[in-house]
Amino acid sequence: MKKLLCIFTVFFAVPKSSQEKPEVTMHPEFKQVYSGDTVLLKCSGAGSVEWLLNGTRIPSSGHLYIPAISTNESGSYSCKRAGGESEPKIITVLEGLPIATLSIKSGQPVIAKGDSVVMELHVHSGLEGWYCKVYKGGRVRRINMLKNLMTRSNSYVQFQPKALNDTENPALYWCEHKTDNERSNPISIRITDLMVMLESFPDPAIEGKELKLKCYVWGDPVIRKTPVELRTKSPLKLRNSRSKVPYLRQSSP
Ligand SMILES: *[C@@H]1O[C@H](CO)[C@@H](O)[C@H](O)[C@H]1NC(C)=O
Ligand SMILES: *[C@@H]1O[C@H](CO)[C@@H](O)[C@H](O)[C@H]1NC(C)=O
Ligand SMILES: *[C@@H]1O[C@H](CO)[C@@H](O)[C@H](O)[C@H]1NC(C)=O
Fold first, then answer.
1. Minimal-distance CA residue to ligand 2 atom 1
2. Do residues 190 and 172 make contact, with C-beta atoms less than 8 angstroms apart?
3. Is 243 near ligand 1, meaning CB less than 6 Å away?
């Protein structure tokens, strides 16, 4: 009797994970995006990423962080990663303002690690039904507010969010009404270890209008004597601690 030796070769079709289509997600996921909103776009997957707006490459590495989006930045956003291109994410930026205002009452939008800020929510028609949220470290969390302050007769409330750590950078805060589909503008807070930091005020930059930038220098007071240079395409020398940059044109950060 002959013995038959059968060898089965099984081929597994293993999809290479690197060829999976990346996906663009927007944080916070607002139904309506208004001019001046802070928008954070993330591309799923790992490795180097390329961002496209209407098919044209836009400079960014990692996440696409738009501190104050303008109506001109409406369009279809997609990302390319490891040879795959995502489905487009259409963002239509509307003129106008959300009915509630969230602002930084004390502190700065860029803070040192361990620091925190005080925020204020203002809703003209009263705070009843409003609550605030934060997107940080890849998750949305609700911020606990004192219930007895969130009433119809109260139109302002201040709160101090928790200090942030490295994995929660940037953190985006906003407030919503529980039924009315209404929200506030978002505020982004970033932490830094840098000793020099340049920051713009959270208002959107408008072509032809003055834009305030603040440059902070920490540490040894001697550093302050070093001339500070503001680089745009060519460096601008600032002579005083407060200088005006005469002309602003729209460009990418
Ligand atoms: C937006 O685009 C329009 C038309 O292309 C232009 O007139 C306007 O100045 C732009 N606004 C900003 C803020 O760049
Ligand atoms: C992208 O395309 C849309 C639709 O054609 C257009 O309305 C929008 O202005 C474009 N955005 C940019 C930044 O070119
Ligand atoms: C950062 O904070 C989150 C909670 O918000 C915590 O889960 C995480 O462990 C912290 N990470 C570090 C490095 O401290």
1. 75
2. no
3. no
Greater model confidence, 233 or 212? 212
251 C-beta closer than 6 A to ligand 3: no
Compute the average pLDDT of residues 144-162: 94
Q: What is the mean pLDDT of residues 93-121?
A: 90
pLDDT at 179: 86
Q: How far is CA 106 from CA 35, 50, 76, 184, 224, in A?
A: 24, 36, 36, 18, 24
CA of 167 to the centre of ligand 3 (A): 7
Nearest 10 degrees: CA dihedral of 159, 164, 170, 171? -30
Q: Domains, the chain, ranges and CATH?
A: 21-94 (2.60.40.10), 100-191 (2.60.40.10), 196-237 (no CATH)
User: What distance in Å separates the CA atoms of residue 65 and residue 194, rounded to the nearest whole number?
Assistant: 19
Going by CA atoms, what residue is nearest to atom 13 of ligand 2? 73
Cα(68) to centroid(ligand 1), Å: 15
Nearest to 61 by CA among 42, 82, 83, 84: 42
Rg (CA), the chain: 23
Q: What is the band of 155 on the pLDDT scale with cuts at 50, 70, 90?
A: very high
Report, as an integer, the average pLDDT of 152-179: 92
Q: How confident is the model at residue 57 (pLDDT cuts 50, 70, 90)?
A: very high
- Which ligand is closest to the CA of 95, given by its number? 1
